[in-house]
Amino acid sequence: MSISKITCVIVDDEPMALNLVENYVQKTPFLELKNKCNSAIEALSFIQENPVDLLFLDIQMPDLTGIEFSKMLPKNTRVIFTTAFDQYALESFKVEALDYLLKPFDYAEFLSAANKANNWFSLTKRNEQQTKQTNEKEFLFVKSEYKQLRIKLADVLYFEGLKDYIKIWLKNNPKPILTLKSLKALEEELPSTDFMRVHRSFIVSLKNIEVIERSQIVINNQRITVSEQYKPQFLAYIQNNSFNT
Fold first, then answer.
1. pLDDT tens-digit map of 183-199
2. pTM above 0.70, yes or no
3. How far apart are CA 17 and CA 29, in angstroms?
4. Using alpha carbons only, how large is the chain's radius of gyration in Å?
5. Which three-class secondary structure state does DSSP give residue 35?
6. pLDDT at 113 exceeding the cut of 90
7. Does residue 199 lie within any of the structural domains?
8. What pLDDT was estimated at residue 27?
């Protein structure tokens, strides 16, 4: 799966290197060159006004090195380093570069690195689309007593796992709906913004939490313990949604 063209900028203080990579970019159908810059300072000024997907970035440059510059980039801008020095490979790994091209490199090596970038952006885009589709989900169909029941997610208080079965506890419904499904499989179908697994046997509706007391959640007078395995994720959610004075 390929996305629309990957926008890119070339950054190198050597004119011959700039021209070579420009030639390689123009040969590559899924790359779109937006600019070529002879310093990181110039590139920084450009991408602040013109965000791009990818930088082909030299490392040893005056004023600001490629490694230093890469730490200033927006989260979604990725880097492929192009350098004549192999001692920076570890540092490039630490800044999560997509690849490391050692000069002199030919088009086959360049294309291999560009394909890594294409695969990375394609996978990221696909994951974003899947997450968006999941988070926009408003209901589930569940099989119970030979029927397919349409369950509105807004009505769900929590899911309780019982081996191969799940109890679905709903608002204004004293009896749960019982369906044959694993809690793990269900977790993958639920919007992560609205539901969270807090225990081996429980997934809760975050919007319906009434009280949090020590390591317990209260929903509809039911106390559900947050187990140690899931506590870090739950505490992070609480922290991100707390009003601090």
1. 998 998 888 888 999 99
2. no
3. 20
4. 25
5. strand
6. yes
7. yes
8. 96
Q: Is residue 1 in some structural domain?
A: no
Tell me the CATH number at 112: 3.40.50.2300
Among all chains, which residue has been given the structure tokens 């990181």? Answer: 40
148: domain range? 139-240
61 and 181 fall within a common domain:
no
User: What pLDDT, in 10s, does the model give residues 195-233?
Assistant: 999 999 999 999 999 999 888 999 999 999 999 999 988
Rounded Cα–Cα distance for residues 240 and 233 (Å) = 11
Peptide bond into 104 cis (omega under 30): yes
Q: How far apart are the first and last CA of the chain?
A: 47
Q: What is the CATH number of the domain that holds 223?
A: 2.40.50.1020
Stated as kind and residue range, the H or E segment containing 124 is helix 107-135
Would you call 224 helix, strand, or coil by DSSP? Answer: strand
Query: What angle, 0 to 180 degrees and rounded to 10, lies between the N-to-C axes of helices 107-135 and 15-27?
Result: 60
For residue 49, the one-letter residue type is: E
**Ordered strands of the 54-57 beta sheet:** 31-37, 6-11, 54-57, 78-83, 99-102
Q: Residue written as tokens 């009434």?
A: 210
Strand order of the sheet with strand 211-213?
211-213, 216-219, 222-225
Distance CA 205, CA 85 (A): 53
Comparing C-alpha atoms, which of 140, 129, 152, 156 is closest to residue 219? 156
